[in-house]
Amino acid sequence: MSKSALYTGTGDAGMTSLVGGERVRKNSVRLEAYGTIDEFSSALGVIASDKDCVEEVRGQILNVQNELFNIGCYLATEPKGEQAACMSLTPERIGEVEGWIDALDEQTPKINAFVLPGGCGLASKAHMARVICRRAERRIFDLAEEAYVDPAVVRYINRLSDYLFILARYFNFIKGVDEIVWKK
Questions:
Q1: What is the pLDDT along the chain (184 residues), one digit of tens a residue?
Q2: Which domains does the chain have, with CATH numbers?
């Protein structure tokens, strides 16, 4: 039987390779940033794979997961220039997410209190993905203290957390589940 290409053993000592071949510690801020993007994409996959996920939302999530893969590759590459751009992230891409937010917001009752994470299963999954998204945003800001990060990446990730918040509210609404509101 031949050896699988899935493992090399080169990371067993706590080092890994970036896209360009540069070796870095597995707990470097760059690895934390793109690793959290990968974790975020996996959380989105949990939502999309749910049998109750709306087909339109499933398509949106697939779109986002593809873009997150591009962002992960961008973050996993040591920039060659002073201000390397994440080429796939255009203003239209960010505008697309804003359009999804607006459409979901129009279909969901107006918010009149702070909402606690929870409700139906899909809403809870969306809230979990949202907080992972926020963590990814924080890890990207950590990286930005050491190296240039295209501001479009931050804008896109920030919009996605807003998208997931309204998506959670939308899931609760279409499932007829009351939102859990914060009681002071």
A1: 777 767 777 667 676 666 776 777 777 899 999 999 999 999 999 999 999 999 999 999 999 999 999 999 999 887 766 556 667 788 899 999 999 999 999 999 998 889 889 999 999 999 999 999 999 999 999 999 999 899 999 999 999 999 999 999 999 999 999 888 888 8
A2: 16-76+87-181 (1.20.1200.10)
Q: 23 φ, ψ to 5°?
A: -90, 135
117 phi and psi angles, rounded to 5 deg:
-60, 135
Q: Rounded to a whole number, what is the largest CA-CA distance in the chain?
A: 63
- The model's pTM is 0.90
- Residues 122 and 33: their CA atoms lie apart, in Å, by 26
- Buried b / exposed e over 165-184, threshold 16 CB at 10 Å, is bbbbbbbbbeeeeebeeeee
